[in-house]
Structure formats: C-alpha cells, structure tokens
Amino acid sequence: MDLHAVIQQVTQDRGPETSAPRHEGADRRSVTPAAEIFAKLVSDWKNLLGWLSVAGVLFWSYQSALIGLAARWAKEADYGHGFLVPVFAAVLLWLRWADFRKREFKLDTSAAAVGIVFLVIWAGIRYVASAYYIRLLDPFSILPCLAAVAILAGGWSGFAWAWPSILYLIFMIPLPGIMADWLRHPLQRIATIASTYTLQLLGIPAISQGNVIVLTGGELGVEEACSGLRMMILFFAICVGAACVIRGGWIDRLLVVLSAPFIAVLANIFRISLTGVIHQWAGPEVAQIVFHDFAGWLMAPFAVLVLWLELWIVAQIFPVYVSEGPSLGPVAQPNKNKSTGTKTAERKIRKSRG
Fold first, then answer.
1. pTM exceeding 0.85
2. Rg of the chain in Å (alpha carbons)
3. CA nearest 218: which of 292, 281, 296?
C-alpha cells in the first residue's frame, strides 16, 4: 500500500481493508489535529515541497532580521521573552485547528484581492526599511507577509484560522526607543510613589525624593531598569495569549487584555515594596539580593495568580457570559457557547421569578 492510500485512510477514518467507515466504539482510531495537518500536507508531495520552498524562501529573506532579533532577545532583558513568542504562536495555531479542520479552505476573488493588498503592504514596508535604514520595520514586515501567505493559501478560512498566531508575533519585536522612553519614565514615577505609599501603610517610615525611596536604614533607588516596562511587555504577551485560549465570552477576553498594564504595575509595586520591607528588617545587602536575583522570578507566577483571580471574579459577576469558569484550553465552538449562555440566562430568569 502506498503512502497516499495510508494518508487517505487516516483522514477519512476508514479501515485498512475496507472502504466503509469505522463504527463508533473502542476500536475507533482517534486522529489528533497534528496528524490531520500532517496528513493533508503529505497527501500530495508537491504541496509539501511547495510549503517547504515557501518556508525556505522566507527564512532566507529574513535571516538577517531574525538573527538581529535573536541578538536583542539574548542581550536585552526587556525582550528575553521573544524566544517563546514564536513557540506560543505555533501552539495557538495547533489549538485553533480543532475549530477549523472541517471548514473549506478555498481561495475566492475577494480573498485573492485582499491577499495581494497584504503583499503590496509587505513590499512597501520592506522598501522603506531598506531605503531609510529602519531596522525594526524589517522584522515587522513578517506579519503582513504571513497574512498574505495564509489568505492566498487557504482563503478566508485560512486567514481566520491563522490571524491570532500571526498577530501574536508582534510581541517578539522590540519597542522603538522613543516609545520605550515615553513609557519608561511615567512607569518609573508611578512605581516609586505607589511603593512609598504601600510601605507607609505597612508602618515603615518612607518618603519619595524623585525616583528614590528614603528609608530609615538607607535609600532604595527605583532605576529605569526597575520601571516595570519589562513586566508590561511580558504581561501583555501573557494576557493576550490567555485571551486567545480561555473559554468564555468576549467580555472576559477583553478584560484580560485590558488588565495587562494594571497587572504589570501591581507586580512591580509588589516587587519594590517587598524589597523595601526586607531592606528595613534584614538590611540592604539581603534586599539587593532579593531585588535583583529572586524577585524577578516571582513576578510571572504572581501575574498568573492575579490573572486567575481576575477571571474567577469575572466568572462570578458575569455567570451568563462565562459558563465554565477560568480554564485554559482550545477555543470553544461559537454555537455551543451561544446555546449554553442562553440556557444559563433562561435558568436564572426562571429562578429569579420563582
């Protein structure tokens, strides 16, 4: 039996010796989304060769930009999460396949026109980046390029399946210097004032002078590296990723995304305040060790805990929209969510009237 026949059996869920579909039961072969994607790709070796060629051309075209991004990820602590962004984008693509595997991927006239527009945008961005030596524009052009590939290869269904993963790749691109400075200084000032007030609430004498917190045993400087910009970018990536995979309605997804800056500021205030408490009771040496070596590792679990608590509160306030609570998993089917939400609302109305 050749490879094409085997692939056809897997995709159609048929037995190896008969053309009739298998019956439901214990002997039914389950096919994972990854296996279905692989089966559709290798069902025609020409398609597989074509996709490998496209991937090779894109990698060759962007090799200098990707090497530059990797160098900044490794060198600058604010963008160290960039190594994980493409990995999560691929995982998100795999999770969404369950909702799109039964759709028809077909290119029509409107999709082709939009795909050509994306190609024109991509070419324009690359030209401007090359002509005016704007380095960040070159990796940014990866987004319209991948959007064009998705829509020209799979039509509107392909674009609907891939656009969250493509858009998520924006988190791997560092912020322009002007924008980073514009955000860093206000965040630095907010962290200083809020941490000083928190220490005062805890009964520790503290006053702020500029971006320095003056304690009885010394001073605690909130430098630019401690402004919270790194946490802001990281938590935006975490919250947007969580909004893409949580089960629920648009309200809790929107709240998760909008809460990213507040969670980042809260985590940074917690970090500085904890350092101030340790500085007051254990000495500046221990405080510096905790502040620079250990506190940073605690921020991501702290942010995840706050995010989970937020989802739980939203589930209590909007039970109609969040039917299953804060849980992670593949994107739920829209029709099922709508029917579940309607039944839940009807039960609540009957209960309130009764």
1. no
2. 26
3. 281
